TrEMBL record:
Annotated SMART domains: AAA (SM00382)
Keywords from the UniProt entry: ATP-binding, Cell membrane, Membrane, Nucleotide-binding, Transport
Membrane topology note: Peripheral membrane protein
Record's subcellular location: Cell inner membrane
InterPro entries documented for this protein: AAA+_ATPase, ABC_Ni/Peptide_Import, ABC_transporter-like_ATP-bd, ABC_transporter-like_CS, Oligopep_ABC_C, P-loop_NTPase
Domain of life of the native organism: Bacteria
Record SUPFAM superfamilies: P-loop containing nucleoside triphosphate hydrolases
Family: Belongs to the ABC transporter superfamily.
Name of the molecule in the record: ABC di/oligopeptide transporter ATPase
Matching Gene3D superfamilies: P-loop containing nucleotide triphosphate hydrolases
Length: 320
């Protein structure tokens, strides 16, 4: 079964200035235990895609439409509030760049993890407390019992990130969405946290969707890569294929702008030209205004995906 099953997803935000077309026809599938990286520059629609399948976007400002939008076999567009609340946590959890978004500053770490466990499972408070301490140990927080009594501001950024991962894992989700989970951390801590996510993914047998602008992060952590640009998928395939033999000119440009140091924090700003304005996206292939290979046809229509091998596909007129 696919843990994530998305076909024809579009997400549009209504704003005073007009409509922002954040996601424009995305198909995405993640199998059990699989790890997938979604990469692309800022604003390409990576986060919104994940938030849409978790139904975490504020509606009706965000309008979500899809031919299929399923999380662990449940149609999230048809799901009621209760089903969604139970899905979030039990089926899927999400971690973010800023752990303060996951924690409430006025409660201790322990209180918040224990409450999360008890919101989803019938366990006594002492059992939940023991489990919370155990989870903190698994994310390599040494003085776990003490840390349970700490407030979020008493932990360093890296420690708080670990505590957020512990809280996300507390309901034993089938899939974890990690949205730029290490971007705010310094390089050594970043590498440790990525390693930890990878180990926990294997240990828990979870699916993983890693959202990042950093190809180095993807190289380190996932099996399959999905490259997004202007609200669309440009190319996808196994991580080795994407790195060794990128097909789409955008993927090639992304790789060329990659910092030498894996996990480095340089932003991908070196591709010439500006990323598309989602309020007024370019016609045809969204990358055509910046693509050195583009011709008039590229502005006319978005090409279909060329399936190079099963699971390896790219959408580029010049490839055809
Ligand atoms: N709540 C919102 N209201 C209006 N526009 C939004 C909202 N959330 C996201 N957007 C817009 O949707 C587009 C896609 O955003 P998204 O956050 O998915 O990009 P991203 O690829 O994840 O990049 P980043 O790394 O910057 O988060 C952006 O242009 C963004 O400004």
């Amino acid at each position: 079964m696919n843990l994530v099953d998305i076909s024809g997803l579009t997400v549009t935000f209504s704003q005073y200035e007009g409509q922002v077309q954040a996601v424009r026809g995305v198909n995405l599938h993640v199998a059990e235990g699989e790890s997938v990286g979604i990469v692309g520059e800022s604003g390409s629609g990576k986060s919104v895609t994940c938030m849409a399948v978790m139904r975490l976007l504020r509606e009706p400002q965000a309008r979500i439409a899809a031919d299929r939008l399923e999380l662990a076999g449940t149609d999230v567009l048809a799901a009621d509030r209760r089903t969604l609340a139970s899905l979030r946590g039990r089926a899927a959890a999400m971690i973010f760049q800023d752990p303060m978004t996951a924690f409430d500053p006025v409660f201790t770490i322990g209180h918040q993890i224990i409450e999360t466990i008890r919101a989803h499972r019938r366990v006594s408070k002492p059992e939940a407390r023991a489990e919370a301490a155990d989870l903190l140990r698994r994310v390599e927080i040494k003085n776990a019992e003490t840390v349970l009594g700490y407030y979020p501001h008493q932990l360093s950024g890296g420690m708080l990130q670990r505590a957020m991962i512990a809280m996300a894992l507390s309901c034993r989700p089938k899939i974890l969405f990690a949205d730029e989970p290490t971007t705010a951390l310094d390089v050594t801590i970043q590498a440790q946290i990525l390693q930890l996510i990878k180990e926990l993914q294997a240990e828990f047998g979870m699916g993983l969707v890693m959202v990042t602008h950093d190809l180095g992060v993807v190289a380190e952590t996932v099996d399959r890569v999905v490259v997004m640009y202007g609200g669309k998928i440009m190319e996808q395939g196994p991580v080795e294929a994407i790195f060794d033999d990128p097909k789409h000119p955008y993927t090639r440009a992304l790789l060329a702008s990659m910092p030498g140091q894996i996990g480095g924090r340089r932003r991908l700003t070196e591709i010439k030209g500006a990323s598309p304005n989602p309020a007024n996206p370019p016609s045809g292939c969204p990358f055509h205004p910046r693509c050195s290979l583009a011709d008039a046809g590229c502005a006319r229509a978005m090409p279909a995906f060329d399936v190079l091998t099963p699971g390896r596909e790219a959408a580029c007129w010049r490839l055809q």
